[in-house]
Design a protein that fits this description.
The complex is a heterotrimer of chains A (453), B (455) and C (441). By secondary structure, chain A is of the alpha/beta class. Chain A is built from twelve helices and 16 strands. In chain A, strands 1, 2, 3, 4, 5, 14, 15 and 16 form an eight-stranded mixed β-sheet that branches. Chain B is an alpha/beta fold. Helix content of chain B is 31%, strand content 20%. In chain B, the strands form two sheets. In chain B, strands 1, 2, 3, 4, 5, 14, 15 and 16 form an eight-stranded mixed β-sheet that branches. In chain B, α5 packs parallel to α7. Chain B is globular, with a radius of gyration of 25 Å. Classes of the chains: A alpha/beta (453), B alpha/beta (455), C alpha/beta (441). Chains in contact: A-B, A-C, B-C. Chains A and B meet through α4, α6 and α8 of A and α13 of B.
Amino acid sequence: MKLISIAAVLVTGLAFAEAPSTVAIRNARIVTVSGPIITKGTIVLRNGLIADVGENVSVPADAWVVEGEGLTVYPGLIDGLSTLGMSVAAPAGGAAMPTGGGRAALAAAAPAAGGPPARGPEDRPMTTSWLKAADQVKTSDRRLELARNVGFTSAVSFPKSGIFAGQGAVINLAADRDADMVIVTSAGQYMTMAANSFGGGFPSSLFGTIAYIRQIYLDAERYKRVKAQYEANPRGLPRPEYDRALEGVIESPRILLPASNPIQIARMIKFAAEIKQKTILYGMFDGYRAAPMVKASGLPVLVSLKWPEKARDGDPDEEESLKTLELRDKATSTPGVLAKQGVLFGFYSDTVDQPRDMIRAVKKAMDNGLTSADALKALTLNVAQIYGVSDRLGSIEKGKIANLVITSGELLQDRPPVKMVFIDGVKYEPTAEAPAAGGAGARGGVTPQGGIN
Amino acid sequence: MRSKRAILVFAAAALACSAETIVIQNATVWTMGKAGKFVGSVVITDGKIAEVGEKVMVPQGAKIIDATGQHLIPGIIDCHSHIAAEAINEGSVSVSAMVGIEDVVNPQDIDIYRALAGGVTTANVLHGSANAIGGKCEVMKMRWGKDAAGLKFEGSTPGIKFALGENPKRSGNIQPTPGAAGGRPPRYPATRMGVEDVIREAFTDAREYQKSWKDYNDKKARGEAAVEPKRDLKLEPLVEVLEGKRFVNAHSYRADEILMLLRVADEFGFKIRTLQHVLEGYKVAKEIAEHGAGASTFSDWWSYKIEAYDAIPYNAAIMAKKGVLVSLNSDSAELMRHLNTEAAKTMKYGGMTEEEALAMVTINPAKQLAIDNRVGSIETGKDADLVLYDKNPLSNFTKVQRVWIDGSQYFDRDNDVSGRAALAAKKKALEDKEKEAAARQAPPQKKDGGQRRPQ
Amino acid sequence: MNKLFGLLIAGAVITLAGANDTFVVRNVTVHPVTGPIVENTSVMVTDGKITEIGAKIVAAKTVKVVEGKGLHLYPGMINSATEVGMSEISSIRESADTNEIGDFDPQLRAAIAVNPSSEHIPVTRANGITAVMVMPATAGGGGEGRRGGAATQVIAGQAGLMHLDGWTWEEMAVTKSAAMELKFPAIAGIPARFAEMAAALGMQRTTYAESKRNYEKKLVEMHEFFERARRYQKAKTAKDTSLKADLRFEAMIPVLEGKLPVMMMVSKAKSVKDAVDFADRERIKIVIAGVDEVGDYTAVLKAKNIPVICGPTLELPNNEDDAYDQKATLPGELFKAGVKIAFGTFDVQFARNLPYQAANAVAFGLPADEALKAITINPAEIFGVADRIGSLDKGKWADMILTDGDPLEAKTNIKRMFIKGHEVDLSSKHTKLYDKYMSRQ
């Protein structure tokens, strides 16, 4: 049975590849995000872009029509910090660690074994700043399908390992070729406060990591000056050393720094100003206590959807601190508080297992003070804005990339009723989810319309 | 301050309090200054000690605290602490001067509050002793409720930590397990000889670094083409030591290594500000006094390591009698809560007087940290950092009643005790809420296929 | 002439025989502990025992006089849990003999492994402590607890009550086997708040369920061991000729007979309850030791007359939100609930600071005279030697200290000390180094 349907899928997939690129979704409810909701309108897609959208838009003759009666169209959702498309080895020690910065990041991204331990910043420990997610993303990642099934059409994916892990890319969650997924080749440098465990070389502590980062930025500024000086007139001067770690740092348009609790948030705000880098803070789940400080800093943030939970296998009699109890109680109120404060924030998956659990997590925030409009924005336009691509992504506007999700009801609910998504103007329908190993390299691939197993 | 959960609200309240005028009346005041000890009062205005004496003028509208039968001392200063920091050791390298406590301050460490409850108002928070030259220190006031920036003792001289003896050579003496793959290589040094070498090499490098920048700046001034040297965050604090701008606090045990460090400092033309622990300091008290280093030691720790086997509780008294400026420290979140009673031990071990004993945890550490213009004694013009005890501060039966820092009250035992029930109730309410929510939810569904997907 | 000669001989005999152990302390303030303080009185010690306390003691002119004017006489203090004599430098395993391998080692005896030349002996007694309980194993908290068989050991062996004076451990022993040390198991595992950090470091965090299973398994093993000991005891009583001697079970017999108390080393409140239940089921006499929280079980301890050896009061609270004075208030609370308490330092380095642990409890609610009892008569009673030591009473050994003040205060000096009436040298390595280096020019 399975073999036949796979064959059918491939056949229809091939058939679909020659389908017309003009699509019109007619008489649907359109939530543009950038403007007021259009109760009944039409969207025309052509050549992978939104050609037109409005109440009175006419359907072109060559368009393949989607009847939108009873359906709602949203901009496709964007995971603000992800590894979708990348093949990721399971981290040592079993369960994935939530990235909240601080202790959690300590050794969570342990570097590959082998090689002598670093003797200092000069050895560029735990640094692969030149790596680009854009070079690594593959359409064959099975997780892309799961993400699309609940309405995600894009993600900002990053290499994750190390202090300077590498440069992320804004990608679409489907394409004909791997490289075609890429929307932005370098969205920013992903950074953690990782450190080696005892005996693993420099740095082996939080302040070691901070001192290292500080040194890198001093070195980078000097590198630029010295290179420019040499370019201007090399005679008589020693030539600058090639340092690919610094090259990677310099070509990153912005950085991502981890910060969850107010101490870390204050620390990272101060640090970002010191190293003079355009910074996004990620983690933030006890940001509810620091909203005014974040607002005053002007920094955008990414809020993790891995809300803190009580350990299931712990001692029931164990005494937990008030801080921990309050955090679990109030973490889901953070997005609402940030929204009220006027902080620009987006959501990201963190270590949330399944993309549909991301939506559930957003729902929890909505139950705790976040309006559905703000929730949607944090999954779409805000993320685009944070990464400087709001001119082409994140809302339903003429000229933007045709990334949409169409539902038969409210998108942000426990079981999002997704009918189809469009990515670059190509339609994908949800699949029945089969268990499979994660990451790229697994069989499968793009699931075009009609592929129900 | 009522609750330990001081958030922004409480910080704001604290700020408001600092403008209050307070008169602490009728206490036995241990000024630790020229005025000595007497029964009298202290007037606090704008966070400073405005007046202190047997009789004072009570300003209008001042808040009166009746301290009859109680004892008022200057806030205790702990010269060696590791609280309130999210990292203590960068032990991977022998010289880690590039790191600093300032980058990792944790203002919500409950040990800050516990220190307050033990009468400590200022602490010198140090890097650990994993390496010969460690990281930069930070002097902090125990201003519970403020953020990291708010804890910093503004204007205090920057410091750096050195360590001698067994600890910095421990990583050099790791025996790799035979047959095991990998494992970590030993980190130089493995002997006390190597510890001296590490320090001399580091300062030689620092001198070279100083020179390279001087040469570069001279060339630039002459209009010559030159490539700027790299900035080296590791060597810059050492240059500051050479220039006398950064205090060296050196963890040390044995007499020979103490002397070694004094002579290395002489060789490079700088002074050791304080020797920390310095458990055999009594053997070389003469040399320490001549050099002008202060000594900050334990009251009676010994025998836990072989280098502590000759430690004696008379150490502080001997050094003091031989002309060294001596303070007692804790190096422990627990011990710092009763430095007053640790100080009392010097009366038994060495015959210190009450005032000499108390000086070791008040004015002496203030002088060692060069903050004695601000704290360490109850004298007009100094910060109102004060501790009120219900009995003689050197008695084992006493306890701290109240603590002020900068004239704001940061600890009140009565409030602490009466607030405990409310704290317990608050926690119970949250726990119950969570239990109810868990009960309401259906048991967790098995996911389709039940397999985990790594990110 | 004969009479004079006879007197001379008699005098000489008296002076020679136990000359040091017979003396009178004059004009001193006596703190008997079992009765009210008596000012300006005298104490007669004959052949090492207290024979008289009173203002009008008449002693022969040849009897040595110890001048007590302006001074105080207290019973020597008793530290109810130490490693004194069994550990010299705690970071050097070769110098420590605590924590043997093996889960059930009742046959081990700490007393015979006490090094009478340990520097810790003169150092500890210099602060007024005349007797210590020497434990075969540390209560698991400090670095020592990681050595030997510490991780899984349950019955560590027999603790000895030792005087801090004697040429050999035999001379030092007050009671060679004063208690059986049992390290009550606890539900192990890393608390949830450390879970994040532990996982990051790659440490496997045992689930609560697993830890609980291990704990219950251990309890079953313990009951089984006791049962096997009981069967051995029965066979021995019945004079079963086929019985092979087993030193472990031999050592258990006094425990099963209720003659040797078992010191249950516990720390958590829940373990207190389990330890009491265990004792009930096995019908043994117990003492709870090392505990730092008793929770709701104070009434149970009082009802069953189970004494508690309090752990150090100068310790941090267990949890972030706990009262800052948590450890210091426990002894007072136990006392108020009617539980008999004593203090132990559970270490070697700070054994001399026993009185300050007690004093800290006074600051936070324990009456001062109860604190003194908890380091004198109470431990004597708990370990069954109250007929010999623990207070200044007629018939007891002269274990006494002469001080210039309250020994619970740090500034107080111990002027002189007597153990079984023998005056003890209060100098030590510490005083000698003091003298030596003060004299350096």
